[in-house]
From TrEMBL:
GO molecular function annotations of the record: DNA binding; DNA-(apurinic or apyrimidinic site) endonuclease activity; double-stranded DNA 3'-5' DNA exonuclease activity; metal ion binding; phosphoric diester hydrolase activity
Cofactor: Mg(2+); Mn(2+)
Active site residues per record: Y109, D149 (proton donor/acceptor), H248 (proton acceptor)
Manganese keyword on record: yes
EC number(s) recorded for this UniProt protein: 3.1.11.2
SUPFAM superfamilies per UniProt: DNase I-like
Lineage of the species this protein comes from: Bacteria, Pseudomonadati, Thermodesulfobacteriota, Desulfobacteria, Desulfobacterales
Keywords, in A-Z order: Hydrolase, Magnesium, Manganese, Metal-binding
Protein name: Exodeoxyribonuclease III
Gene Ontology biological-process annotations: base-excision repair
């Protein structure tokens, strides 16, 4: 099973580029997208109906043209959820999940903390509450896959200029400590576990020719509960730098179920 996650940075904008061709090239069983920046009234048939896929959506109702996540799936879920029951997160359209029987897949657009102390506090609160929710699922015996834009680079290998970014949200020590906690709680960063020394990025600023010069950050991840790695269900993980159209590129996971 091929799972792919991609922050599209505005679905309406990327639809005017090569998004449909990119979806065909990616050829995922499940494609999770973040930062759709859509309202339900702006979801047109071309966005909603891609051949071979069912689509699921969670929209921001707190602010227009903001946040939002979606899933295109060839795999029929047992159950779908549109948040974790906490309005301050769910009303920003940040979480969409599917129970696939073998595991529960979460598509998450984690908050960006760069707009001030209030949003940084919100981001850290989000981490705590979200992983408390997934921990409860794991305590009930469920396997968990978490896909999305975490808006944090974990270690120095995960961004081009770590020293220059130590005082900026996305690489603050307090945010990186949270990534450490996620790992300590029994979640596995699939790409870094399989490729411990590989330097690859998933996001580049639009400025300064950053993508062409590969001055980037790895902030898009697939984390899985430790049991999935231990059971040999993780066949491969990848970052697809060839797919363009957004300031992020797709990241993926191949499952052997």
């Amino acid at each position: 099973m091929k799972l792919v996650s991609w922050n599209v940075n505005g679905l309406a904008a990327i639809m005017k580029k090569d998004f449909l061709d990119s979806v065909r090239r990616i050829d995922a069983d499940i494609l999770a997208i973040q930062e759709t920046k859509l309202q339900a009234t702006k979801l047109d048939p071309q966005m909603e109906r891609i051949d071979g896929y069912r689509s699921l959506w969670s929209f921001s109702i707190r602010r227009k043209g903001y946040s939002g996540v979606g899933i295109y799936t060839r795999v029929e879920p047992r159950e779908v959820g549109y948040g974790i029951g906490i309005p301050e997160y769910d009303e920003e359209g940040r979480i969409l999940w599917m129970d696939l029987g073998t595991f529960v897949l979460f598509n998450v657009y984690f908050p960006n903390g760069q707009t001030g102390e209030d949003r940084l506090a919100y981001k850290l609160r989000f981490y705590e509450d979200f992983f408390a929710y997934t921990d409860r699922l794991r305590s009930a015996g469920r396997s968990v896959v978490i896909a999305g834009d975490f808006n944090t680079a974990h270690n120095e290998i995960d961004l081009k200029n770590p020293k220059a970014n130590e005082t900026y949200s996305g690489f603050l020590r307090i945010e990186r400590d949270w990534m450490d906690r996620i790992v300590a709680r029994g979640y596995v960063d699939t790409f870094r576990t399989l490729y411990p020394d590989t330097v690859k990025y998933s996001w580049w600023t639009y400025r300064f020719g950053a993508r062409r010069r590969n001055i980037g950050w790895r902030i898009d991840y697939f984390f899985v509960s430790r049991d999935m790695m231990d059971n040999g269900w993780i066949q491969d993980a990848f970052i697809d730098n060839e797919i363009e159209g957004s300031d992020h590129c797709p990241v993926g996971l191949i499952l052997n179920l």
